[in-house]
Input
Amino acid sequence: MFNIREELQKLPAKPGVYIMKDDKDNVIYVGKAKILKNRVRSYFNKTQKSPKVSAMVSHIKSFEYIIVDNEVESLVLESNLIKSYAPKYNILLRDDKQYPYIKLTNEPFPRLIKSRELKKDGGSYFGPFPNVLAVNNVLTFWEDEYRLRTTKRYLDRVYKPCLNFYIDKCDAPCMGNMSEEDYMKKLVEPIDFLKGKNELTVERVRDKMLFYAENMEYEKAAAMKSLIEDLNSLKEDQKITKPLGDSIDYVAYAKSEDIFLVEVFFKRDGKTIGRDSFVLSNDDEDEHEMMEEFIKQYYLGISNPPSELVLEVEPTNLESLQKAIRQKGILNTTINVPKRGEKRDTIMMVKKNALEDLAKHRARILQKTKTNVIALTELAQIIGTGEYPERIESFDISHIQGTDAVGGMVVFSDGNHNRNDYRRFKIKEADTRNDLECMKEVLTRRYKRMLDGSKGFSKAPNLILMDGGKTQVGIAIKVLEDLGIDIPVMGMVKDDSHTTNKLLYNNEFYALKESRELFTFISNVQNEVHRFAISYHKSLRGKTMIKSRLDGIKGIGPKRKEALMKEYGSIEKIKQASIDDLVKVPGMTRKSAESVKEELKKYEID
Output
């Protein structure tokens, strides 16, 4: 039994990070301290605290701490733990991304790749580019058009070719089929484009578009038209970026009673190349503390912070923040808060954009909240509870002819996705070809764990939405009755065109066409649970497709499977290899090679 009073006396007078937990051992808050003893004890003294802190303290049942050498280390560790646990009472950044570069690698037969990291590795970096989709599409075009290599092999010797050679997408320089000089000729046009000499590339793609259009190949013409738009998008931002280039981020904020929004403008070599806005939760701190939280969670989370941060207000712990950011990146980042001059003018322009984005964000929230309230109120009227269901759970099964069968559970809290509570289930006991048996297993496992108080499963829903009609609803009701649980169950019923058009509850149907808000909400739930279950199934199926035919072969364990796949790249090539060839693979014996050949004879590979 954790005794808080006793543990408080054991706290050291050293810098570190503390982790607060509730009665279910969930992490609810992570903080840093110059002196752990003083900081952690302050939560439990009788001084007046803010409502947020008082609420948090009332839920603390235990705590842990990690001692570090200095305040900078504690700041970095705190940031990482907040990202890992997403504690309820911490200020949380709801967005986390950075723009990619196109990198020309520094190696024999170099590759063109997308990179979100800027390293001192001898490579040439172009960008960053705000339009990520355009980067992906242009790189794919260049790889196909010039048959560029994409594998990570360092070509200091001759290799066996990869799959791209066999499907005629690469000339396999790894085999020694061409000189590096000839290969580099392929890269002349892409590199010229990235350096700003871009007219030839765009003109060539335009000629292709016209050719396809004249020959009535309209889909190919449309693809070329889209590619021209992507190329033009990259033209706006292209520049070669050196690790020590000029890079400034301008950061301003706007806040209301319940929202703190941060606006960032990204300037590279004196040119604004993009902007982004971020919303922080639990925003009852002042703007200086909120700015510190944003800097910690965003700039300590990206690979290469800019050379300068220009802020509207000074964050708390500025000096420690600056040291931590400098340790993170390769640039000697400085943090400035200008009071006058051109940079102050730019900050005020960013501030105007922040205020505008805040107004838009509030409008979206209000509209979404209004829609959710109407939908949940109508659900409450159908159920007859008088109060709308705050927590809704929905389930779906996904498989292909019984293989890799899985179940997915999604959760909506107050009408919004609650992704932290989503759960995935591998079907273990049920006949995987029988959806109803699979659903019965998933529901039984989920609600047994609720009764057991298992971590992550203890919360009870106010409503269960089943994808289907009387049969699916009946399965759920039977499972709940067997467990002695009383939770309303509703079915989402589709019409002949596979569109959900009514709800089933207590053997009565309720049409959705009369309520746009309820129809939108139910469609959202159904699409989300279907997407979640399918995504889990695909992830398992992808792994199984690679290794399933090697599973269960006598004498073939994980290391030999990995060695075989590394050498041959596919099951088909393993099947085509002779026993003598298989024996040459590291770790293989003649006996194990014979087992592989014997087993793979049973499969007909297309």
Observations:
- Residues 391-544 form a domain with the Nucleotidyltransferase; domain 5 fold (CATH 3.30.420.340).
- The mean pLDDT is 83.
- The chain has 20 helices and 20 strands.
